[in-house]
Design goal:
By secondary structure, the protein is of the alpha+beta class. Helix content is 34%, strand content 20%. Strands 8, 9, 10, 11, 12, 13 and 16 form a seven-stranded mixed sheet that branches. It is globular. The structure holds ligand ANZ. The site of ligand ANZ has 18 residues, from strand 9 and strand 13.
């Protein structure tokens, strides 16, 4: 009976679904383990083999934890609202609701074909009213706490998408998902006050076990700077402005000040003769993005206002300039410039011939800014002279505070989160606008505010949200007062639903509250979260923020939602390109030695390893892999490709390799069974520990696989099982007991074949909750160990000895070594020092 995954796999998948094998219920008698995948947005036409890499790893670990006796919560759902789903809808000309339904069905089927052990009774969909009702409810909580507000703000407007975007969604002036450029506009939008949580978002990262790189990205994005504010007076007008600096110690070195072009004082302080030059400069700066303005090697520009500022520390007058390298959106929108010790100021001073003064000793400030902020010593700075930079900072801050011209200040780069979009496919806000221009916030009883069904859902060029076209929906009556009202027409961004889905999973059917206290107490926090690194400062920052708001509102009992986090690497693929840059399907390429040709044209082709993507024709569909080799082979290969975090190219030959391993496992069990399991069982594979060597190897395998699973080193766990199966193949003396152990070890990785064999071994229910095999510590102990032998402190040989060898045995073995004999050249050693289990030292 050959191994046939086509017969085995659908059968067990049906079994698991019908028996609700992976259903999770609160059970205080068991320790819980909540293991979560970042849920996908069901756009496009289904999964490629890159998606399940993380899902496979979490599934292996979920299955392993169940066998260890944990009550495992492992759910899956759909991040169905938002731009990606809507863009797919626009592309295909199908209504987003229809396309979302279609795509979730495809995703669910594909995911189920891989035999993942999700509790499907907990499936959630962020675009369904019984889900987004609670997203709206949570928005009300944010509003109540003063964390949601409307404001006229400079926004990132993306003309191609017809909507504004959050700062986190924009990189290098483009939308991160599509590369479409964004522009600056000022618009009235909904904002969330994430900045109120900046410090806690930093501090609480100490509590979580996350990759350092992800923590660093969050630190960097939040961007905490310690420094001071100082007040400068304008000599000509008597106005005052504040500057923010991280180097208050250099106050004596300030030789000019800069106002950002948007600074409210610019026009007021500019003297008559400079007015047109300054105005012209301000207009041109408005066109540039912050990114352009602060680009490092861009030539500095600026214009003198004709006015002067008085340095509070020494009363000196210094010129006030306007320059676009100072941003209005950071600090106070104004700086004191210290060209001696700041690179940008140095460059600017050079360009406009402004004085450069040294106040920290150590460099040559005429040549370059000397930026040392630790070891340098203050000069030319009156009462700061002789102090090191850190001490000088403290001293000057005290001085500023005493004289009431400044104060200690912590500054963050993080900005409030722009939370509204001019798109259709999102959660409507639970907000009404009354005729007098005030807003009315709806209450829990009014929810959900249903998203109206409209056919013309495309965005508009002028930024008017598509929901404004839903005439019947738009106008309504405020229930409390009977006054006429219109609904808010912006929608929430896709991140809204994903900010809290992990909490809905713990209590998905609750229609009285988003989740119960009981469920939260039992299941939270998420023990392990696995997903792509691209969410480091988007989803992961947003959901941490919401979670902290929930914590403060008493809705959750933990400060952080995700205790540990791992990022899966990318699955890459070989793609073939000709000299004109055209891509070809691998099937259409013939490889001859070093070169590749297309089947027709014989165009010399280049193959390279790239990210899997439809446009590069290098996508591998999991359905095809399952059809040719089965889901178990696919799962094994996903794990065997390399460490979870690494990027690796997909190789069909690799799938064939793990398939051969499963064939071998199958043969190992059925080698005596020509006619099926029953006969095989009755013939009885010999029982008893009659092959001690294989026995030891099995126990070592249990040990290694267990340790590797704990460390999430799934690839090396599989390699160890392969070693065992190779050793066992060909020997017909495996006891049933040992066979069972091997099946249980394999079960988390290749659950279908494992269930099938388990069943054939005479068990009539699933192995999903069988206890994880234990190894015998005596059997895994190595009999021999390596001991180093030194002569006069130099390593000369290593010898293999019994673990329990005595001091005398060790001395004898060391002196018997040929290499040592040669070293001693026939002489007797003067002294032999033996450290049992470690080393033999010989003094000659
Ligand atoms: C004087 C000074 C002297 C500065 C020196 C640095 C070195 P981070 O680390 O990013 O917080 N700055 C302040 N506000 C600014 C704004 N709105 N736009 C552009 N630059 C601004 O950097 C803080 C430093 O960036 C501040 O400290 C200020 O320059 C500048 F030897 O003040 B510093």
């Amino acid at each position: 009976m050959p191994y046939n995954p086509d017969l085995i796999e659908p059968k067990w998948q049906r079994y698991w679904l019908e028996h609700k094998t992976f259903r999770a219920e609160i059970d205080p008698s068991k320790p819980k383990y909540y293991i979560l995948d970042m849920f996908p947005y069901p756009s496009g036409s289904g999964l490629h083999v890159g998606h399940p890499k993380g899902y496979t790893a979490t599934d292996v670990l979920a299955r392993y934890r169940r066998m260890l006796g944990f009550n495992v919560l492992h759910p899956m759902g759909w991040d169905a609202f938002g731009l990606p789903a809507e863009r797919a809808a626009v592309r295909e000309g199908i209504h987003p609701a229809v396309i979302t339904q279609r795509n979730t069905d495809i995703f669910r089927r594909q995911i189920q074909r891989l035999g993942f052990s999700y509790d499907w009774d907990r499936e959630v969909n962020t675009s369904s009213p019984d889900y987004y009702r609670w997203t709206q409810w949570l928005f009300l909580k944010l509003y109540e706490k003063g964390l949601a507000y409307q404001a006229e703000v400079p926004v990132n407007w993306c003309p191609a998408l017809g909507t504004v975007l959050a700062n986190e969604e924009v990189q290098d002036g483009c939308y991160v998902e599509t590369g479409d450029p964004v522009e600056r506009r000022t618009m009235r939008q909904w904002m969330l006050r994430i900045t109120a949580y900046a410090q806690r978002l930093i501090d609480d990262l100490d509590e979580v076990d996350w990759p350092q790189s992800v923590k660093d990205m969050q630190y960097h994005w939040i961007g905490r700077s310690e420094g001071a504010e100082a007040e400068f007076k304008v000599r000509e007008t008597g106005d005052a402005f504040i500057i923010f600096t991280t180097r208050p110690d250099t106050l004596f070195g300030a030789t000019y000040c800069v106002l950002s072009p948007e600074h409210p004082l610019v026009s007021k302080v500019t003297v008559a003769g400079r007015r047109s030059a300054v105005e012209e400069y301000v207009v041109s700066a408005r066109q540039k993005t912050d990114r352009d303005r602060t680009a490092e090697n861009r030539e500095k520009t600026g214009v003198f206002t004709g006015a002067h500022a008085i340095n509070p520390v020494n009363g000196k007058s210094i010129p006030i300039w306007v320059a676009d390298y100072v941003l209005m959106t950071y600090g106070a929108g104004a700086i004191m410039a210290v060209p001696g010790h700041d690179e940008r100021d140095h460059e600017f001073a050079r360009r406009f011939d402004l004085p450069i003064v040294e106040v920290v000793k150590g460099g040559d400030v005429e040549k370059a800014a000397y930026v040392d902020n630790e070891g340098g010593e203050l000069v030319g700075s009156d009462f700061l002279n002789g102090l090191k930079v850190p001490a000088a900072k403290e001293r000057i801050i005290r001085w500023l505070e005493d004289k009431k011209v400044g104060r200690r200040k912590v500054q963050f780069k993080l900005r409030d989160w722009l939370f509204s979009r001019q798109r259709y496919w999102g959660e409507p806000f639970p907000i009404l606008h009354l005729e007098d221009g005030t807003i009315k916030v709806l209450t829990a009883e009014d929810l959900p505010v249903l998203l109206p069904q409209i056919n013309e859902y495309r965005p508009t060029a002028d930024g008017k949200p598509p929901l404004a076209r839903a005439k019947d929906w738009l106008t309504t009556i405020d229930r409390a007062t009977g006054r006429k009202a219109t609904r808010e027409t912006n929608t929430m961004p896709q991140w809204a639903g994903s900010c809290w889905y992990y909490l809905r999973f713990i209590d998905p059917l609750n229609d009285r509250e988003p989740w119960s206290k009981e469920a939260e107490k039992y299941w939270m926090p998420v023990d392990l979260y696995v997903g792509g690194v691209e969410h480091a400062v988007l989803h992961l920052l947003y959901s941490r923020f919401w979670h902290k708001v929930f914590f403060d509102a008493g809705l959750v009992s933990t400060k952080e939602p995700f205790k540990s986090l791992r990022n899966q690497g990318m699955i890459l693929a070989y793609s073939f390109q000709d000299s004109r840059g055209r891509y070809f399907y691998p099937e259409d390429v013939v490889v001859e030695g070093e070169r590749a040709f297309t089947s027709e044209g014989h165009v010399p082709l280049e193959s390279r390893i790239e990210k899997m993507s439809k446009s590069k024709l290098n996508v591998v569909n999991p359905d095809d892999v399952i059809e040719s080799h089965g889901a178990d082979s696919m799962r094994l290969y996903e794990c065997f490709m390399g460490p979870l975090e690494g990027d690796r190219p997909w190789q069909t030959s690799g799938v064939e390799g793990v398939r051969r391993f499963l064939d071998r496992v199958w043969r190992l069990f059925f080698q005596s069974a020509q006619n099926g399991a029953e006969e095989w069982l009755s013939k009885g594979i010999v029982s008893g520990h009659d092959d001690p060597e294989l026995d030891r190897l099995l126990h070592k395998t249990i040990q290694k696989v267990t340790e590797d699973l704990e460390a999430m080193a799934l690839n090396t766990a599989i390699a160890q099982m392969m070693t065992f199966v190779n050793a066992a193949t060909g020997r017909d003396k495996l006891s049933k007991e040992n066979l069972e152990k091997l099946v249980l070890l394999l079960a988390p990785f290749a659950p279908h074949i494992a269930e099938e064999i388990w069943h054939a071994l005479g068990h009539d229910s699933t192995l999903a909750y069988e206890p994880w095999p234990r190894f015998d510590p005596i059997l895994v102990r190595d009999d021999t160990i390596e001991i180093a032998v030194q002569v006069n402190g130099k390593l000369r040989d290593t010898i293999a000895v019994a673990v329990d060898a005595s001091t005398e045995d060790l001395e004898r073995a060391a002196l018997a070594s040929d290499k040592i004999k040669k070293q001693l050249a026939g002489a007797l050693p003067r002294k032999v020092i033996v450290v049992p289990g470690k080393i033999v030292n010989i003094v000659s």
